[in-house]
Amino acid sequence: MSFKQDKGICSKCDNVDIIVNRTRWLCNSCNRKRLDDQNTGEKKIRKGLQTRSAIKAGKGGLKKFTKKRQRIEVDYKKVQEQIWDERPNVCDECGRPDRLSFSHLIARSKRPDLIADKRNIVLHCMTFDGDIGCHERWEAGDKTMRTFDKLTAIVKELIDEKSNR
Description:
Blueprint: E1 7-9, E2 16-21, E3 26-27, H1 28-40, E4 44-45, E5 50-51, H2 52-56, H3 67-86, E6 100-104, E7 121-125, H4 134-139, H5 148-163
Antiparallel strand pairs: 1-2, 2-3, 4-5, 6-7
């Protein structure tokens, strides 16, 4: 199978050459540079505001939150630290000490007012290497979980408490 090879002016280097990327109108060498830049991890994100390596190094993030959301996130981080200090650092369901995640019983998106509520957060292990974690089991509604009844009772309590306000 052969593709039609059109000669044209490269939008990057302005040379007349065979255009290999018709979406961006790039010649082979300019398209290679573009692809190599993507693979190095230094690709600029959101109009050059930050690079991927800057984000990984902790020099800020992509998300810009409102002041209210920033306060909520700060409160959430504090609650995570408190939970880590107060509770055993093992999965609430299976007791596994590794691959732990702060898992919300009621999703953050469904109830933003409960993001930083300690009762809404449990430690669950995550899926790794084909081994299904308790976080995914809870998300899927696995009723065979040992703590399922306890967790659903907490969810009902939180919903009732917030609806009575």
